[in-house]
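Appendix C: a fully annotated inverse folding record. The material below is reproduced so that readers can follow the format used throughout the book. The structure is listed first as tokens, followed by the designed sequence.
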């Protein structure tokens, strides 16, 4: 299936998720519905503990909902087993977290190369280098993560996430630990990637101003997703 602009690339129908069971059962998401239009950016805000990371993990197929349906690029994630969801993730989804996205003993280019290797079964160093140069990180290819600034680390992490040419980028508070100028630069990199690569992007942020830069804003409150 070739995705078309304006169509939802991700769709959630009545998705509920709780952790634990019995008396310690903790409801996080209740009958959540949402759509992420193909090729658009969507922001997600909500207080700490409201379930933002849980929602991203469900979309990424890292776990299954208790009830409801999750479609990613026409694949019904909640019907796939662990291997099936892992292959959708490997082929179509990039995921970036607030920190510790990179393998600490590999250089920037080796981190990207590893991501390419997982997808293709090869380790194409040249492509990894090209991608970093493309993303303005040509001067940092041989640096280890600890030798990179916070902003550079996150840019390399985004390069790693984009290595497989995913259709969907999930970004969970990726600029949460950066100063506002660096944060704006890193977000700009994501917005540019969205435009140039036709990516569908869902990003979580605490920053209302960053949230408003998205094509659409969502808010998670009282276990539901509403327009932000
Ligand atoms: N693996 C888990 N086991 C039990 N509870 C969890 C787990 N992950 C998250 N939670 C709880 O679920 C709620 C939502 O967490 P999370 O999705 O991380 O929220 P957010 O990202 O919005 O801060 C929180 O109360 C959190 O403590
Ligand atoms: Mg979170």
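Designed amino acids, in order:
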């Amino acid at each position: 299936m070739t995705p078309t602009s304006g169509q939802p690339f991700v769709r959630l129908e009545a998705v509920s998720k709780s952790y634990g069971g019995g008396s310690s059962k903790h409801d996080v998401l209740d009958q959540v519905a949402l759509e992420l239009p193909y090729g658009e950016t969507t922001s997600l805000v909500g207080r700490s503990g409201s379930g933002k990371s849980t929602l991203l993990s469900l979309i990424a197929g890292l776990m299954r909902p208790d009830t409801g349906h999750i479609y990613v690029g026409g694949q019904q994630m909640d019907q796939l087993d662990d291997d099936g969801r892992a292959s959708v993730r490997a082929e179509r989804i990039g995921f970036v977290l607030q920190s510790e996205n990179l393998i600490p003993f590999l250089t920037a280019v080796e981190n990207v190369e590893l991501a390419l290797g997982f997808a293709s079964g090869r380790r194409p160093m040249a492509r990894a280098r090209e991608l970093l140069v493309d993303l303005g990180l040509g001067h940092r290819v041989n640096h280890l993560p600890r030798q990179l600034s916070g902003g550079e680390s996150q840019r390399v992490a985004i390069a790693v996430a984009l290595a497989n040419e995913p259709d969907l980028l999930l970004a969970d508070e990726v600029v949460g630990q950066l100063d506002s100028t660096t944060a704006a630069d890193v977000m700009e990199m994501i917005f540019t990637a969205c435009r140039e690569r036709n990516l569908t992007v869902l990003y979580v942020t605490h920053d209302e101003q960053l949230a408003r830069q998205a094509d659409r804003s969502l808010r998670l409150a009282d276990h539901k997703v509403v327009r932000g």
